[in-house]
Amino acid sequence: MTVNNVLKKQIIIEIVALLFLVFSICYAFMAINKGKGEKVAQYQGFVSVLDDSKLKTFKYLSNGEGVNQEGITYTVTNNNKDKANYKVVVTPNINDSDILDKVRVGIDNLYVFDLTEKEKYGNGYVIIDNELDAGYTKVHSIKIWFSEEVKENNLVFDYMLIR
Q1: pLDDT band at 87 (very low <50, low <70, confident <90, very high)
Q2: CB contact burial 68-103 (16+ within 10 A = b; e otherwise)
């Protein structure tokens, strides 16, 4: 009888361990799928998270429609010991001024501007210039659209955090 009891305990332990393994694998797959579309970067004590999962192609919109669309979420965390300044730079994949002159940007549902009017940084444009206290996080909403009709719409931006 004792051999049967020991065997039953081992089978139960193995089944529980197997179930735990299956649940762990399922959780890992869900976490991976949830993280698609998010890009995490660290730079000089700052951590930035770009969530462009809701981003669709840029299209012609009025300013009101552009601000009301779903945009990109750009989260910045200051892990430094002191208050620090940061900038968010967007770099387009094209240099055609006819297209870039028609790009409008909305930041945090407050500021709307033409992209080419912003400060240049290399091949990109500084769209956010902000200061953040140590240990704090700021979530920016970035919305981009065209102010006029554009025939070829293959515009893509790279986002970069600088100090």
Answers
A1: very high
A2: ebebbbbebbbeeeeebebbbbbebeeeeeebeebb
